[in-house]
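Supplementary Methods, section 5.1.

A reviewer requested that the exact input to the structure prediction be made available. We therefore reproduce it here, unchanged from the version used in the analyses.
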Amino acid sequence: MQASHLNKIIFYLIFCFGFGQHAYCQIDTKEIHKADLLFKSNRLLEAEKIYLLNLASASQESENIKYKLAFIAKEKNDWVTELTYLSSIQAQNATPEIAKRIAEIGEKQQVQGFQINFLNQLQWLYFAFFPYIIGFLLLLAAYSFLILLNKKRKNRHIKPSYITYLALFLIGMLILTNYPNFLNFGIIKKDKVFLREFSSSAAPVKIILKKGNIISHWNEQEVWANCYFDGQFGYIKTDDFQGIN
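The structure derived from this sequence is encoded token-by-token as follows.
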């Protein structure tokens, strides 16, 4: 009975692990190629229109497109849009080079949340060594699974705690693998945004956010979203910020 439960748990977690990844959508490669040619010939505004039309469906090309959109925003002197695209890339594939540019923009515009810190360094390690980390953890999981199968084959007693530990280990792997997708950040895109105590325009204002501030958000309902910024929890309107990832 315990072995049967073990098999069900393993199958369910592997199923979630496999199908929890983003499916790649087909994109119009001709349009992307056309935009790339326009970009190279410095026809940036024309290229930008095509990139924006294809960004949502271009899963495999999204990072390259965001780099180019960030460059176009920089050329337009639109620092909020540049910051948004660079932060979006950073959330999915953190690198020191992007972090430095983001910190530079944040310092120049005097907005909080973009300084390089210890968490950034952990993110760099996570993305740089991700295949090795996951490979090592998979080997540990496979080794543990083989031990339990061997016990089953020899009709030896399997403690329920062993199954629980393996299940928790696999759940931890699932969370680690999808770590970037659990983060919901946004950048304030208006000059003055009110963080309110509850979801109403009549609610008291806790703090005032300014353009470029980075916030954590979740639980979007209609026009309001829960928000965290600088130790304060509250509500802001969903059209006051641009989601990063």
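The two ends are 43 Å apart (CA to CA). These observations are discussed further in the main text.
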